[in-house]
Predict the structure.
Amino acid sequence: MHTPDRVRQRLEDGTPQSYLKDMVYGGIDGTITTFAVVSGVVGAELAAGIVVILGLANLIADGFSMAVSNFLGTKAEQQFLQKVRVEEELEVKLIPDGEREEIRQIYAAKGFEGELLEQVVDVITSNEQVWIDTMLLEEHGLLLDGPEPKRAAWWTFVAFLLAGIVPVVPFIVNLLVDGGIAAPFLWSSIATAATFFGIGIYKARVVGGNTIKAGIETVTVGGMAAVLAYGVGWLLRGVADGL
């Protein structure tokens, strides 16, 4: 992996994009919001059919909303990067000496000095593309390569649907199968906790870290949301009957 040819190839291919954040974000939010709806309805002691209706409605609508929001947010980051690039291009043309001084001070702060520092400045500023890219990275802290907006949105939506459907499945089975499942909310809770735990483990395996700790952390966050939703539903359980 570290022969000259392999290193050169990796650098030419550019930075591989990861959509882990989009998948984890979508999966966790999908599970939390759908299970919160289920918990609220059950806490309010409403009919099981309402669980399915509200759960599926939330699944589609909120999943689409999250995907669109992720698309627009990721696209906005790209547009901001382009805006700053245009500004730097203009400054390089209008005040090149000032921009050279910025490069000089940036690399002086990294420990370069004397003739070596001047050589670094000369090399970087001899290529306008490299010069501007360096300013974007070092001065503004911007990444030159980012996730593709459509893919980010797609992964968010898919993860939201796949994870978010889990809390509703026991109630769907009860509507479709005679006899159904006894205590569907219990099984929904177990399946949801397992989903949270699985998402945490997947995240930990990709980024490194304690898988058990990551799983428990995710379950805890989701459980808190569910408890809040169930509590609100329980407190308002008589409201629907009075409407």
